[in-house]
Amino acid sequence: MKTKYREFKISEITPEMEGKEVKIAGWVHSVRRVGKIAFLVLRDYTGLIQVTFRVPKDASDEEKERMKELVKKVTQIPLESVVAVKGVVRRDPRAPRGVEIAGKEIEILNEAKSPLPLDVSGKVDAHIDTRLSNRPIDLRRPESQAVLRLVSIATKAIRSYLYTLDFTEVFTPKIIASGTEGGAQMVPVFYFGKNAFLAQSPQLYKELLTSSLEYVFEIAPAWRHEESDTPYHLAEFISVDIEMAFADYEDVMKVLENVVKNVRDAFVREGSKWLEVLNYQPPEVNLPIPRISYKEAWEILKAEGIEIEPGEDFGTPELRKLSEVLEKEGKTSGGFYFIVEWPADARPFYTKRGRKEEIGGKEIYLSESFDLNWKHLEISSGSTRIHKRAELEEEMKARGLNPQSFEWYLKWFDYGMPPHAGWGMGLQRLMVPLTGIPNVRLAASFPRDMKRLVP
Amino acid sequence: MKTKYREFKISEITPEMEGKEVKIAGWVHSVRRVGKIAFLVLRDYTGLIQVTFRVPKDASDEEKERMKELVKKVTQIPLESVVAVKGVVRRDPRAPRGVEIAGKEIEILNEAKSPLPLDVSGKVDAHIDTRLSNRPIDLRRPESQAVLRLVSIATKAIRSYLYTLDFTEVFTPKIIASGTEGGAQMVPVFYFGKNAFLAQSPQLYKELLTSSLEYVFEIAPAWRHEESDTPYHLAEFISVDIEMAFADYEDVMKVLENVVKNVRDAFVREGSKWLEVLNYQPPEVNLPIPRISYKEAWEILKAEGIEIEPGEDFGTPELRKLSEVLEKEGKTSGGFYFIVEWPADARPFYTKRGRKEEIGGKEIYLSESFDLNWKHLEISSGSTRIHKRAELEEEMKARGLNPQSFEWYLKWFDYGMPPHAGWGMGLQRLMVPLTGIPNVRLAASFPRDMKRLVP
Q: What does the similarity note say (chains A, B) (predicted)?
C-alpha cells in the first residue's frame, strides 16, 4: 500500500522497474563515501537497497552544486536515522537483488543520536538483558524480528486450522473473582474498590462456553506471579486455549498435535525467510505424536536409576532424562511426545478421574489427562474435564478449595453442562522448538517477568 | 470431527443418510409423548433434529419391553439435559430438514435441574441483567449466541484483511508502569510488590513497534474504570489496534474503512445464518466513508442551534443531531462518517498538531486526527502520531504529564522513530451497527462493568 512517505517497500523494487522514479523510506543501515559518490544502504522491514548519490557529469552547474551538497549531507547522516529518498531505479547486476537507486533527493525524517545503546546490525552479540532493555531497537536486529514474525505466522496457522473444525474465537474475562487453581501465583487487581485477580487461564470460562458455543478457542494474555527466574517462565504469557463439548482427552490431543504440525508446516511454507535468518530448521512433526503413560514414564525413569515418589509430578531433570531415552528409542516426533494418564491428585480439580493402577507398589488413581512435551519442556497441558457437579465439589474439597467460592461456576453444572475436554498451550513455549530460541522472553514483544515492568 | 460422544453434528445428518445408524449428542430442547411414541427434539450448536422413540410392531417381546421402557424414560428427561442418542436416519418430508432419527438408545450424560433460571427457548423475553447473570445458559438462546458467532467472524475478517497488507500480529504487555493518558480510569495491579496498571490501550507499545516491525496490529483486552453505566461502555473491552510506519492519518483511515467494510461483507457472506436469527441486516458500507472536518461539524451544529465552545469535544446529544443532519444530506455511508482534524488540545499528547484555523471566532490548533462514528456512537479514534521527541515532551507538559515518567517510551524517539499513524477500535462497539445489538455487553462473553465481576 502506498502511503504518505513511500510509494514502494524496498522488496517491491525490481530490475523491471529500471528508469522509474520512486519514493522509498526507511533507516540508514550504513553509509560511506568513495571519492565523490555517497553510498547509502537503506533498510525497511522488507530488506536492504543501496542508494547512490553522485554528481552528474552532464548537468547544469546549479544541479552539479546541489548534488555535491547532497553527497556531503548524506555522508553525515547518523546511522539508524529515518529518511525518505527519491531516486531512479537502476539495474545493477552486482547488487544483491539486481537493483540500486540513483538518489536524487533525501529527506531526513528523524535524525538518530549516536552512539546507539545497542548495535542493531547484529554483528555484535549482546546479552539478553541488554537486548530486552533496549527492545524497541533490538527488534531491528533481523534475528530478533524473525521470532516475532514467526509468532504472528503461528497464530495465523493455529486459527486457520481451528476454523476448519468450526471453532469459535472467544474473549473471556481477564479480571476474575476467584482463581482457577488458587495459590500464591495470582496477580491481584483492584477493581472498582473490590479485590480481584488477573486470570491465570481462561479455564473455567471456556468450560462454561462449551455448554452453548461447544467448540471455542482463545489466544490471549494470562498471568502468573512466577517466582522462578528461568528461561521458560513469563509473568505475562500468551495462552492458546481450546475447549470442546462432547469430546474427551484423546479427541483434543488429536486437535493439539494437528495444531503443532500446522504451525510447523506454516513456518516452512510462509516463514522460510525468517527461519533462514535464524539459521534454524524446525523438527518435522509426524502424526500421531507418540503417547506414553505416566506409568511407563515412571518405569523408564526407574530403570534409569531415577526413582520418583509414585504419583508425583516430574521435574526438569526427570524430563531431560526421559526425553533422552524416548528419543533414543525413536518414541518422539521431532522431540515431541505426550505423557498421558497422570495421577489424578497431581492435576487440577477439574480433571476427570480415571481408573486405579499400581505404580511402584502404590495404588494410584489416574486421570484422563496429558502433557505435550518437547524434550524437557512442557508445551501444553490438557484433559477430559469433570462435567458433574458432585464430582467437582469432591475434587475441590480434596484440594482444600472451598466450593462456595466457585458457586458462580459450579451452579451451571446443574443445567446441562456437556462432557468436555480441552487444553492450554503457552504460545511462547511452542516457539522454543519451532524457532530455536533459548528463552521464551524472545518470543514476547516486551516480556514481563519478576524484574521487568519496562519497557 | 468425530468425537467420543458423537459421530455427527446435527446439521451433518442429511436425507441421503437414510438407513444409517448414527450417534449424535446435544441438549433436550423439547420432549412430548403422543400415545406410545416419544418425540424428543435434540439441539446442538448446529441445529435441531427430531428423535422419535416408538415400540416396534415386529420385534421380540424383550425388545418391545425395552423400547416401552425407553419411551417412558425419554418422556421424563428434564429439558436442557445433555444426552447422547443412537438411532437410524429416516427421511421425513414433514421434518424441517427432511430427516428425523428413529431412536434406539439414549444415554443421559448430564441431567438438568428444573426449573431453569432463564428460559433458553428465546420465547420468553428476559431483562439484559437477568440474561448476563445467567450468561452460560443465556448463550444457548439463538440470538445471544448469534452475536458471539458474529464477533468471531469479525475478528477473522479483520485479520484476513490486515494480512493482505502485510501486517504482523503482536501481543503488547498488559501490565504497564504508567498510563497512556493518565487519569482516574486506570485499573491498578499489584505486580511483584510494585504498583502498576492494566493497559488502557496498547498505544505506546504499538508505536514503538513501528520502528522495527513497521505494520502491526493487535486484538486484545484493554481496561478502563468506566464510572459511567451506559449501554456503550465496558470496563474490559476488546481493542482492535493498528499502527503503521511511514503513514499518516489519511493512510490509516483508508485501512480502517476497509476493515469495517470487510467485516460487514464477511457477515453477509459467512454469517447470514446468524444475521437471520437476529433479524438484522447490517448497513451497506460504500467507500470512501464520508469525511467532515471538526470545523464543518461545529458549523452544522451551530446552524442547528447547538453552540459548542470552539475546540471542545462533542457529546452524545451533539453527535445525535450531527448524524441526523448528515444522514439527511446523504453524507454518511450506512450511518458511518469520519470527523477529521480535531482541535489538538482535545486529543491525547501523542497526536500530531496541524494548522491553525478560525472556528467560531477563535483561533484553534487542529490536529491530524479522526474519529469514525456510526450515528451517535464513536467506533474508532486515530491520528498521525508525533515522531519527534521535543514535540512529544511539549505536548505532555501542556497536559500536565511529566515526561520523566514516560522516559522508557520517549528515549526511543532519539534512535530513529519513523513517522507513523494508527487507530484503536472497540470491537464490541463495532458490533452495534453490524449486529443491531442495543448494548455492547451483548458482544462480550462475560462482560465486566462497574457492577459485574461474576460470572
A: Belongs to the class-II aminoacyl-tRNA synthetase family. Type 2 subfamily.
